[in-house]
């Protein structure tokens, strides 16, 4: 029967943009009319078959979707070696690192840039941390002939030079942000400031499932192509649903994309993996759900890293893409409901998983999914051999080889 | 009648608008900010706006951002800002004080506790930049229960369809954000303001103050005549910063420099 389950986890957000108490539209009045305009345009686009067809065409022929589902056979065998008899879950990867531009970000960027065009906007701005969302936005803007300005913390500009150069090649203007700690949070502040000053012609392309409503829902919906594909692919491969989904969580877009289509499948457990940085008790981490508390930042109520006075504190992670003191509001809700378990993995654990995946599967993962993989390495040996873990390998590691080399003491 | 309503009524009787200078709490340190606050009414401030520092002030330009960073470095907190108002009220029972800031420090303090303590300290109104009418129920009930005015922002982007919604929930006065942009970056033209204010008057009888981009005495005078008041922030902060020593500390010139500027602004506003 095609009806909505009364207790569905998939009904959020409500008309106010809330997931339970989280989300909302905490923006200055100058932006509010535009936020409402984006919401109306997005709602209309859902029913616009030409819009949907164009987005699907781009996903197929430009991005290269569907991304494959890969049974990580050698990794599975490796984990079973040290497991008790009959133990060691089968590990599958959803390979969104094979997308054009090397990560899942492009899925939602193409949707948003199409929306911006539909709204008649002629200038695109974006924030970026590691540079993946900036590269994806610059790519889409090159394809669709729109000027693109990317705000990037000056600290991140220094440590992500290859992506800065990529964005420039693609024709984008990269603006280093020196306010605050000069990382992703400050880049987002600057993006919002630009938008306030240029509301008449500019669309702000947000990279994750955060920000004011409708962004968390919109980015999630576009990214849900990941979970929808994976569900069908797992049926083909195994004839059933996976037992556990695992994904890294910074803002949380790749995780929402994988989880959302499975939320009402009660047999499927879900684990979101935050960055524990130098350790959850070190004070240097990016684990907003594990160690933060609810607050309001960047347009939404969600779990945040903050001090006792409500001042936002700096996040730390080896992965620039997870280096953010907040998390998408829907994750905060799923966390409080207990539908998704959120755990945290340290820089060192992610580095070890990064190397293991490279050697065993011939896939160099990005440091973000390396966090998810580190959690898989802990979980799989304790699960029965007939169980299945599906992990979102949401980005490739080319961008990270300089960071990893430095940590391994190699000069390249 | 509240202090804010009383003040605007008195100014109307005098036939002039209000000068509303801004200072950031604890910028560059508590004692200096306190001396500036205390000196403002004597220099001609009609109402005073105190900024509560926040790490991520997304509607503010570089000048106010840096003011907030200096304030935080000097130990600013919500309790500290309320403490300043409490001390100010020992000598001044009349000048309305408005706290301007972002929602998270209030949320962290506890909305009900904050509103109760703010009223008790002598705060008259609140401007919470990132709480639009759509989220008003987060703070309005506690603000109203404690007699605090909730002053709303109206922007050039606020269309006719939206004005009734924004204005219906406003008390005290209306804060017209003169530009689509952040604080201290550019200024609206007199013509733009002359067109915008009557548009708002159609929907409210409340006084209207103009802020964002009001820098010079001339601009403050014009704004206070076109509307009912002018808010000056970044220009005062810039003037203060010019007096700091290379380590960013206050010098003997700091407090007089700010108050002299307030005097110049006040003079222009009073030339009516």
Automatic annotation (TrEMBL), chain A:
N6-(pyridoxal phosphate)lysine: modified positions: 105
Keywords: Amino-acid biosynthesis, Aromatic amino acid biosynthesis, Lyase, Pyridoxal phosphate, Tryptophan biosynthesis
Signal peptide: none
GO-annotated molecular function: tryptophan synthase activity
Entry cofactors: pyridoxal 5'-phosphate
EC number: 4.2.1.20
Catalytic activity: (1S,2R)-1-C-(indol-3-yl)glycerol 3-phosphate + L-serine = D-glyceraldehyde 3-phosphate + L-tryptophan + H2O
InterPro entries reported for this sequence: Trp_synth_b_CS, Trp_synth_beta, Trp_synth_beta/beta-like, TrpB-like_PALP, TrpB-like_PALP_sf
Domain Tryptophan synthase beta chain-like PALP positions: 65-395
Keyword Signal attached: no
Pathway the protein acts in: Amino-acid biosynthesis; L-tryptophan biosynthesis; L-tryptophan from chorismate: step 5/5
Listed CDD domains: Trp-synth_B (cd06446)
Alphabetized Pfam families for the sequence: PALP
UniProt xrefs under NCBIfam families: trpB
Quaternary assembly: Tetramer of two alpha and two beta chains.
Similarity comment: Belongs to the TrpB family.
Function: The beta subunit is responsible for the synthesis of L-tryptophan from indole and L-serine.
Name this protein carries in UniProt: Tryptophan synthase beta chain
Source organism phylogeny: Bacteria, Pseudomonadati, Pseudomonadota, Alphaproteobacteria, Acetobacterales
Name of the encoding gene: trpB
From TrEMBL, chain B:
Active-site residues, as the UniProt record annotates them: 49, 60
Iron among keywords: no
CDD domains, alphabetized: Tryptophan_synthase_alpha
Amino-acid biosynthesis is among the record's keywords: yes
EC number, UniProt record: 4.2.1.20
GO terms of molecular function: tryptophan synthase activity
Catalysed reactions listed for this entry: (1S,2R)-1-C-(indol-3-yl)glycerol 3-phosphate + L-serine = D-glyceraldehyde 3-phosphate + L-tryptophan + H2O
Keywords: Amino-acid biosynthesis, Aromatic amino acid biosynthesis, Lyase, Tryptophan biosynthesis
Pathway: Amino-acid biosynthesis; L-tryptophan biosynthesis; L-tryptophan from chorismate: step 5/5
Pfam families: Trp_syntA
Subunit relationships: Tetramer of two alpha and two beta chains.
UniProt family annotation: Belongs to the TrpA family.
Its biological purpose: The alpha subunit is responsible for the aldol cleavage of indoleglycerol phosphate to indole and glyceraldehyde 3-phosphate.
Protein name: Tryptophan synthase alpha chain
Lineage of source species: Bacteria, Pseudomonadati, Pseudomonadota, Alphaproteobacteria, Acetobacterales
Name of the encoding gene: trpA
